[in-house]
Write a structure and sequence with these properties.
Helix content is about 75%, strand content about 5%. It has about 300 residues and is mainly α. A hairpin with a 3-residue loop joins β1 and β2. The chain is globular and about 60 Å long.
Length: about 300
């Protein structure tokens, strides 16, 4: 298991870095048909669709499951990712999209879920299908879209910071928890997590944040000046990302425990499903967005 994690994790990070590099090179051509962030957002939209499908399958019981029902969750998550990027990052890319689209997308996902249920000629699972589609759209699509909006507003360095610090917190929690973890954190949701692991995750996240700001300069100068130069802010940023990542992880763990499965999927060796990789980032992206709004 650990061996596969050590292979899959760096590979995913390399793919993300490569996608950001390609997006930056395309954007540097100043092509109006492909503004900064659009290419990476399209890639993330496909990822969100697969995560939405996994989320839908988790939320539906075996009795309520329908072969086509995950389609609504996948399409909703993908559409919400794209819509959120257009609303948040569209202005930076020279686009003007009404925020009203963020209300229209979930309604469309719900209607699609109802349509799929009606096609099955069985109204019994209607509530489950609608709830699954709505949560997949709001949680997965909204979280992924915010990450892409941050990328458009603050540049690739900020997105890289979120991913790196969030995953460093995961590594720290896992390493310390396995080594000296004795006191269970929330055993009824995730039996393996400990208070010692949480402390280790926070230490790794804070250290990663401080090192990152020594090595990189965020494209948005106002944001960079606000985040750097003050030890308290840097430490606080690392702590909030570590805690936010834990909340995202526990949220999906709760759904998996209710569904009676260990992983959301089996696409990634050693890591489970695509949602298992994104669960913490969906929350840390939102946390970072709130911090940015307070500082800018």
């Amino acid at each position: 298991m650990l061996r596969y994690r050590l292979i899959t994790g760096p590979l995913l990070f390399a793919l993300l870095a490569g996608a950001m590099a390609i997006d930056a090179n395309v954007s540097s051509l100043q092509c109006t048909c492909c503004p900064q962030g659009l290419l990476l957002t399209l890639i993330s939209t496909c990822y969100a669709a697969l995560c939405g499908i996994e989320m839908t399958r988790l939320l539906e019981s075996a009795q309520a499951r329908h072969t086509l029902s995950p389609i609504a969750g996948g399409i909703g998550a993908a559409a919400m990712t794209l819509a959120t990027w257009f609303v948040i990052g569209g202005e930076a890319a020279g686009l003007d999209v009404s925020p009203g689209v963020l209300a229209v997308v979930p309604i469309g996902a719900v209607l699609l879920a109802l349509l799929v249920t009606a096609a099955s000629r069985d109204c019994t699972p209607a509530m489950g299908h609608v709830a699954a589609a709505a949560l997949s759209t709001a949680w997965v699509g909204g979280g992924m879209g915010i990450l892409m909006g941050i990328y458009a507003l603050a540049g690739w360095q900020m997105l890289l910071l979120i991913v790196a610090v969030t995953k460093l917190a995961d590594i720290g929690a896992y390493t310390v928890g396995c080594s000296i973890g004795r006191h269970k954190l929330i055993p009824w949701i995730s039996p393996g997590k400990t208070w010692e692991g949480l402390a280790g995750g926070i230490v790794f996240a804070v250290a990663g944040t401080m090192i990152f700001f020594e090595l990189f300069t965020i494209e948005n100068s106002t944001l960079h000046d606000s985040l750097t130069g003050c030890l308290l802010i840097e430490v606080g940023f690392g702590v909030l990302l570590a805690i936010g990542g834990l909340i995202g992880d526990l949220t999906v763990s709760m759904l998996k425990r209710d569904a009676g499965v260990k992983d959301s999927g089996a696409l990634l060796p050693g890591m489970g499903g695509l949602l298992d990789v994104m669960d913490s980032l969906l929350v840390t992206g939102a946390v970072t967005w709130i911090i940015m709004q307070m500082l800018l």
